[in-house]
Amino acid sequence: MLKIAWSKCYAHPLPPGHRFPMEKYELLPEQLLYEGTVTPSNFFEPYRLDTRWLLSTHTQDYVERLFSLSLSKSEIRKTGFPLNAELVDREVHIMAGSVQASEYALEYGIAMNIAGGTHHAFADRGEGFCLLNDLAISANYLLQSGLAQKVLIVDLDVHQGNGTAAIFREVHEVFTFSMHGAGNYPMYKEESNLDIPLPDGIGDEDYLAILEDSLHPLIEDFQPDFLLYQCGVDVLKTDKLGRLGLSLNGCMERDRMVLEAAKKKGIPIMCCMGGGYSERIRDIVEAHANTYRLAQEIYF
């Protein structure tokens, strides 16, 4: 069964005019249920994650100041979010969702988190709509619990996973692969184990060829026993922040390539949704929904 982390707090409202589309976290599960891709039994509500797993990745000083809402104005500005207790609670629920989805992936081969992909959070700070790093926390949870020995993080969001790269710079059990827009945020890129910067406007054919030439040799060389997939849909041509040129079909074929590679090799995979900022919310929801449709098609 495809298990999907979702909580009502994922769609916590932001101030009017905020550019982060929180409504997708309500519309996506509604769409998947309406079309029959999933049923209510596919969803689970994440429990609150033990703080020790946050501290496996983030510094105690940062976590304490985040929970006490005592970040500086500069630190808050870098996150892009207004800091309040509800948003911190939302972030902790997202971390729990990815960790628990990783456990379900070990059982069913694949599992998903409607939110997550918070790859801009560093060990000691948040950035770019990310307060905590669910990819890093999930990888550390798997490794420290003895559930995996080698974790591959495939980050195909349009923005480089800079926080994830920095966190695992000296960790040989985790391989970070980021394929992203060369001229996009963040201005200063960290060094992943494998970075592939892409030119503005790259289309489906070229993008998919690069991914295919990179992903399969990487899996063969690293031999991971778990895969974390950040499948942001801000690679779409319609995305306001993305600057790449993928169609909805191209984005879906990207996901198909990753999911089929994991399935063929028998590597459990946890997918978290990442970014998506197209003008029309239906484009964001449709692109994300394709990932779930593919999961059902390929795995179940």
TrEMBL record:
<protein>
    <submittedName>
        <fullName>Deacetylase</fullName>
    </submittedName>
</protein>
<dbReference type="GO" id="GO:0016787">
    <property type="term" value="F:hydrolase activity"/>
</dbReference>
<dbReference type="InterPro" id="IPR044150">
    <property type="entry name" value="HDAC_classIV"/>
</dbReference>
<dbReference type="InterPro" id="IPR037138">
    <property type="entry name" value="His_deacetylse_dom_sf"/>
</dbReference>
<comment type="similarity">
    <text>Belongs to the histone deacetylase family.</text>
</comment>
<feature type="domain" description="Histone deacetylase">
    <location>
        <begin position="18"/>
        <end position="289"/>
    </location>
</feature>
<dbReference type="InterPro" id="IPR023696">
    <property type="entry name" value="Ureohydrolase_dom_sf"/>
</dbReference>
<dbReference type="InterPro" id="IPR000286">
    <property type="entry name" value="HDACs"/>
</dbReference>
<dbReference type="GO" id="GO:0004407">
    <property type="term" value="F:histone deacetylase activity"/>
</dbReference>
<dbReference type="InterPro" id="IPR023801">
    <property type="entry name" value="His_deacetylse_dom"/>
</dbReference>
<dbReference type="GO" id="GO:0040029">
    <property type="term" value="P:epigenetic regulation of gene expression"/>
</dbReference>
<keyword id="KW-0378">Hydrolase</keyword>
<dbReference type="Pfam" id="PF00850">
    <property type="entry name" value="Hist_deacetyl"/>
</dbReference>
